[in-house]
Amino acid sequence: MRYRQDITELFSTFAQLDAGRFHKWLTDPNLERSIKKCLNETPEASNAKNFWAIYWHKHWQNQSHILAKRHLSAYLQEQCYWAAHKTVAKFAINQYSLADYFQLANAEVENILKGFKPEISSNLQAYAQIAIPTRLKDILRQRKEADSCTNWALLRKVSKKQVLASLSQAGLSPAIIAQHRLVWCCFKELYVPNQVGANSKLPEPNRQLWEDVANLYNRERLNQLSQQIPQCSANTIEQIITRTATYLRAYLYPPVDSLDALKSEDGSNITLDLPDPSSDSLIADILAQEDAQNRQNQLSQMKSVLSKALQVSNAQTQEILKLYYQQGLTQQDIIKKLQISQPTVSRRLIKARESLLAALINWSRETLNISITSNQIKDMTNLLEEWLRSNDHPI
């Protein structure tokens, strides 16, 4: 894959794949004219790709420029391609092609833009390099979960937000969405099987359950729905629940439209149904292994950050940390050994911990592009304490 260096190319060209490989860059004339116009008006930023990424991201957030998302989609083509390349190589047992994963990655650009926080880091490409592969793995997990669930298990485990989103995506009217939501709520309230093990399948709902759900729905609709919505029979309730499960599966794992779809005589796409993964358990194992490796890599990077931050501390602070954490001396023992005052020992311990924790937080913001929550700070504090007490680094 030839990397793009010119700003005009970065924000106006898209990757074309052929036979499962990168073929060439295709230029969008509208995007090319748009970015050239911007460069002429702001020549001082002619080579600042981060500047233009943030520029278009702000326009996308404010919905103030019709081409903003297209410019950003072009900008992230390389990250989408390499995320697809990595995924198809890792999940060779899966029948999706590089083109399919590339299509999925491009479809996730909207979510990537929503997750990116310019106030934390200005490097959108660095954020996308982490975020896009993560989203592709999430999609695989969702597909595995959806495939392994019966309709009844799926309907019980999803949230109301997911149900509403799936119904909306299906193009239903607000009145029909409200009806389906109420039917699902009634079903979930009454369908509570007893003594179902963690690995066993939920039993099929019986006729009495559908009658009970219909009765509950018909009572609740008077308060929750428009009076124009009619009563439903048990058969109708079962049909609505089955359709809702279908909408949920389509929402949780949308079908992949191949980039290399055939064309019919009228110009419309003819897509081929792709087979399911041949081994869900193997996919799960690979995902778990990769997650463990990613956590290990992040832990290693965090320890490296702490080591560098510690090296800039003065010698006395490092000595106090060593005595307190690695040799287990109390503050009173340190006072006697180093012949310094108690406030000095206490102050240096507090400031050293604060400085090291700040280094971890800054690294997380800049590298992972995330807002740090109180729980994450707590986790980082625990990691810091564990690292200070370990003997795998010099103090």
From TrEMBL:
Keyword tags: DNA-binding, Sigma factor, Transcription, Transcription regulation
What is this protein identified as? Sigma-70 family RNA polymerase sigma factor
- Coiled-coil zones: none
Lineage, top-rank taxon, reads Bacteria
Q: Name one Pfam family in it.
A: Sigma70_r4
Q: NCBIfam families in the record, alphabetically?
A: sigma70-ECF
Q: Which residues form the signal peptide?
A: none
- Record PANTHER family: RNA POLYMERASE SIGMA FACTOR FLIA, SIGMA FACTOR F FLAGELLAR
From what organism does this protein derive? Anabaenopsis arnoldii
Q: Where is the RNA polymerase sigma-70 region domain?
A: 314-356
